[in-house]
Specification:
Protein name: BDH protein
Number of helices: 9
Pfam family, one: adh_short
CATH class: Alpha Beta
Organism: Baryphthengus martii (Rufous motmot)
Transmembrane segments: 54-71, 183-204
Number of strands: 4
Number of domains: 1
InterPro entries: NAD(P)-bd_dom_sf, SDR_fam
Shape: globular
Length: 206
């Protein structure tokens, strides 16, 4: 039989909203969101037949963004797809789980360090008229500092994936993150948007 499907494919990049082309948005939606949906639909008949498991790789970035809104967008969308699918699959005995890792950039290499020079060279003339090279460099330095703090213990995420596949009673969501990352998700989920915006704006200003 066919027991489990893990939708793990994903790509990441850095850049403020206007810095990225429409082609980039389409590529990210195609890989991070539609790729998982295509794979799920292809195997759904077998998963229903054998009462299997479907596991999706999301991220705590589904709750907030710090310079990679395009990645956050796709992860938030896949979360909603999973929420609908999980409810629909219950009657077939198929369980749907979401893995929500924190910062594991150093483990996965999903996001290489960003180059301010490359970002600047790819900006449109309209964006260059709004931003300065110094601003782009500051944002790049900030994002690279986040990447450098990423955990190297990727086995923690793999363990969650295995539990989602093999546990008699898997969780709907597995948040595999540091305490401060979980706290940030907690603030985002429970506090008014204005509070979260203030927290993130303060972080960006530093």
């Amino acid at each position: 039989g066919f027991w489990g499907l893990v939708n793990n494919a994903g790509i990441s990049t850095f850049g403020e909203t206007g810095w990225l082309s429409m082609e980039t948005y389409e590529k990210f939606a195609d890989v991070n969101l539609l790729g998982s949906i295509r794979t799920t639909l292809a195997f759904l008949p077998l998963l229903r037949k054998y009462k299997g498991r479907i596991v999706f790789m999301s991220s705590i970035i589904a709750y907030f963004t710090l310079g990679n809104g395009i990645y956050s967008m796709t992860k938030a969308a896949i979360e909603k797809f999973c929420d609908a699918l999980r409810l629909e699959m219950k009657k077939f005995g198929v369980q749907v789980c979401i893995i929500q890792p924190g910062n594991y950039a150093r483990s996965t290499k999903i996001q290489p360090p960003v180059s301010a020079e490359e970002i600047w060279n790819e900006l449109s003339e309209e964006e260059k008229a709004v931003y300065t090279k110094e601003y782009v460099q500051e944002r790049a330095n900030f994002f690279n500092s986040i990447l450098s703090e990423g955990s190297t213990n990727g086995s923690e995420v793999v363990d969650a994936m295995v539990d989602a596949l093999m546990s008699p009673a898997p969780k709907a969501r597995y948040m595999v993150a540091k305490l401060k990352e979980k706290a940030l998700v907690f603030v985002c989920a429970l506090f008014p948007t204005v509070v979260m915006d203030s927290v993130l704006s303060y972080a960006l200003s530093k």
